[in-house]
Structure formats: C-alpha cells, structure tokens
C-alpha cells in the first residue's frame, strides 16, 4: 500500500478515542522495529523525520526505506516531516513524496506564525499533503527550535489560528516537553486547557509533542551498563491515555525509542566485550524498538487493531 495521508486515521482516532503513534526514525533498524510492531498490532502508523534525521540519513535514503517499509503491507503508513522550520524544507519533502508535514512556527510572533503556516498550507494542499502546525511553545531543544520555558496554548487563539491558516491539525502546549527531563517535581499536564481547546474545536485533531514516558526500566538498564542518565522523567502513560480521549489524535515519541535502543546496545557491549560485528547489537536494539512500540500501541495509544 502506498504512503497515505493521516486524515482518515485521525477521523477514526477522534471518534474512537485513541491516538496514532508518531515515531521518529533515523535509520533502517528503527524503521524495521517499528514496522514489525505495527504489523503485529495491526495498527495505523506515522513515521516521522526531523530536519536532523533528514540530514543524517539523507532524504533519498529515507524515501527508499519507506518504500521498502510499505512494500509488503496493507497497513496505512504516513511519512511526516517533524518540526519543519521553514517553507523550503516543507516544499522539499512534499516534492519528494512525504504525505504530511509539520510547519513549526511556534517560536515566531503570532502573526508571523500565521503567515508562514498559511504559505505551507497553500503549497501542501495544492498537492494533497496534510499540514500540522504548532501554537504555544514547548520547553526544551529541538534541532532548530529551542525555548527555555513552556508557553501554554491559548484556547481562543487556537481557534482563530486554525481558522486563519487552514492547518489540518494543531500541536498544542499543555505541559509536555521534548527529551528525557520533562518534570522536576510531580508530572502535571493542563487537562483543563486541553478540554477547553477540544470543546472549542470539536472533531479537530490535536497533537501532543514531547510525549515519551521515559520508561524507568530503560533508564536503569542504560545506567547499569555505564550510562549517566540522572533525574530523567517522562509523561505518565495514564496521562497519555487520557489525552487520547480528549481530541489528541497524534502522540509523538522519540526519546523512548532512543532510550530503548541505547540501553540495549550498552547491555550488549557490556555482555559481549569480544564482539565487533554490528549485527550483534543492532539486532537486539531493533527487537527492543519493536517491543517498546508494541507496548505503546497496545497499552498507551489504544491503536492496536485500528488499521
Ligand atoms: O522533537 C524533536 C525530535 O525528538 C527530533 O529530534 O531533531 O534530534 O532529530 P532531532
Ligand atoms: P519526546 O522527546 O518526548 O520523545 O518527543 C518527541 C517529539 O515530540 C518529536 O516531535
Ligand atoms: Zn516535537
């Protein structure tokens, strides 16, 4: 089945109160691990590529990996640009065959975010491509965008933003952040704000970035085998489940994949110091990715069996 738009997935996700997982990919083993879990779970799927991942792997390699990923499955799979920072990168991936893009103008003044988002929407919609935008700001650092503090999304402004830009989904800030250190104290998301936003925009798909749960077993495993990941804390999985019933149709996960992969490779190195064939650690790393994604689909996102 060819790569598809997320529109139909989100319509169903919204109606049935689940979320589609959007998993960041950088190389073949990550793609293969995620695909094997999706096949087992019969789940819809978004594979997303950041500007950094595109630079790392190269757009042609990414596109060819996707071609291979969807060649032997009837599952709906979306190829999405994560955190597109300008019109040029959105245009480049749309022209290359991505089926969905995020234009992230969240760091810009409001009117500039609107103007940039509108420009991307116009180009993308002319070519049948889906557009995610962002309003509000997540704390933390992405490739091209960084912010010291959370600026939560204003519900009324969100309505106006969507009306004026025509974007197809909206990433909102309600307390999540990118990376492994999301909360200093008790984890807290602003569900009241989320409820307000979804009540003002019924049937409109919302997106949650920074939604890794930073599984303690992988942090512990990484640290047991020489890592130094202290004070890591993610979004509790029951909160993600709740968000999925309140209009959040897409949940972004990258850090959890990184932790699963790195912890597993550290363990392999420690247990097999004599080994130097990359397959001895990349195979278990790929299996760890698959196990993690299966867990997310089944127990957190609720998207198993929804393909
Ligand atoms: O939101 C950021 C994603 O985790 C991608 O991270 O820009 O380091 O590839 P990256
Ligand atoms: P995490 O860092 O919580 O995995 O978030 C990933 C993300 O939002 C990618 O856009
Ligand atoms: Zn993000």
Fold blueprint:
Elements lengths: L6 H10 L3 E5 L3 H14 L3 E6 H7 L1 H13 L5 E8 L2 H10 L3 E4 L6 H16 L4 E6 L4 E2 L4 E2 L7 H11 L3 E4 L18 H10 L5 E3 L7 H9 L12 H8 L3 E6 L1 H17 L7 H23 L6
Parallel strand pairs: 1-2, 1-10, 2-3, 3-4, 4-5, 5-8, 8-9, 9-10
Antiparallel strand pairs: 6-7
Helix pairs in contact: 2-12, 5-6, 7-8, 9-11, 11-12
The chain binds glyceraldehyde-3-phosphate, 1,3-dihydroxyacetonephosphate and zinc ion (ZN).
The site of glyceraldehyde-3-phosphate has 10 residues, from α3 and β3.
Describe what is shown at a glance:
With 307 residues, the protein is an alpha/beta fold. It has helices at 7-16, 28-41, 51-57, 59-71, 87-96, 110-125, 155-165, 191-200, 216-224, 237-244, 255-271, 279-301, and strands at residues 20-24, 45-50, 77-84, 100-103, 130-135, 140-141, 146-147, 169-172, 206-208, 248-253.
Question: If you had to describe this structure to a student in words, what would you say it looks like?
Answer:
By secondary structure, the protein is an alpha/beta fold. The protein is 48% helix and 15% strand. The protein has helices spanning 7-16, 28-41, 51-57, 59-71, 87-96, 110-125, 155-165, 191-200, 216-224, 237-244, 255-271, 279-301; strands at residues 20-24, 45-50, 77-84, 100-103, 130-135, 140-141, 146-147, 169-172, 206-208, 248-253. An 8-stranded parallel beta barrel has the order 1-2-3-4-5-8-9-10, surrounded by 10 helices. A two-stranded antiparallel sheet has the order 6-7. Helix 2 packs across helix 12 (279-301), helix 5 packs parallel to helix 6 and helix 7 crosses helix 8. The mean pLDDT is 96. The structure holds glyceraldehyde-3-phosphate, 1,3-dihydroxyacetonephosphate (13P) and zinc ion. Zinc ion binds at residues 83, 178, 209-210, 252.
């Amino acid at each position: 089945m060819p790569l598809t738009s997320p529109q139909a997935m989100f319509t169903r996700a919204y109606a049935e109160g689940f979320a589609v997982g959007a998993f960041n990919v950088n190389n073949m083993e990550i793609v293969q691990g995620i695909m094997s879990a999706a096949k087992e779970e019969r789940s819809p799927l978004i594979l997303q590529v950041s500007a950094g991942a595109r630079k790392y792997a190269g757009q042609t390699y990414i596109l060819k990996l996707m071609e291979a990923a969807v060649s032997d499955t009837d599952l709906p799979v979306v190829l999405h640009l994560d955190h597109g920072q300008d019109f040029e990168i959105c245009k480049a991936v749309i022209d290359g065959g991505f089926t969905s893009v995020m234009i992230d103008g969240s760091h810009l003044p409001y009117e500039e975010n609107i103007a940039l988002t509108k420009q991307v929407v116009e180009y993308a919609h002319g070519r049948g491509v889906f557009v995610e935008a962002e309003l509000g700001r997540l704390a933390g650092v992405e490739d091209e965008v960084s912010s010291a503090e959370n600026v939560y999304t204003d519900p009324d402004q969100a309505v106006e933003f969507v009306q004026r830009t025509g974007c197809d989904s909206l990433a909102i800030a309600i307390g999540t952040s990118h990376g492994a250190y999301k909360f200093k104290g008790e984890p807290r998301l602003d569900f009241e704000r989320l409820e307000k936003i979804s009540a003002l925009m019924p049937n409109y798909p919302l997106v949650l970035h920074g939604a890794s749960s930073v599984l303690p077993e992988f942090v512990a495993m990484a640290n047991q085998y020489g890592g130094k990941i202290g004070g890591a804390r993610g979004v509790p999985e029951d909160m993600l489940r709740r968000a999925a019933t309140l209009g959040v149709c897409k949940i972004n996960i990258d850090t959890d994949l990184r932790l699963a992969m790195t912890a597993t490779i550290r363990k392999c190195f420690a247990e097999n110091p004599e080994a130097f064939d990359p397959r001895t650690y990349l195979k278990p790393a790929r299996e760890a990715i698959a196990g993690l994604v299966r867990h997310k689909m089944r127990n957190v996102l609720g998207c198993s069996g929804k393909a």
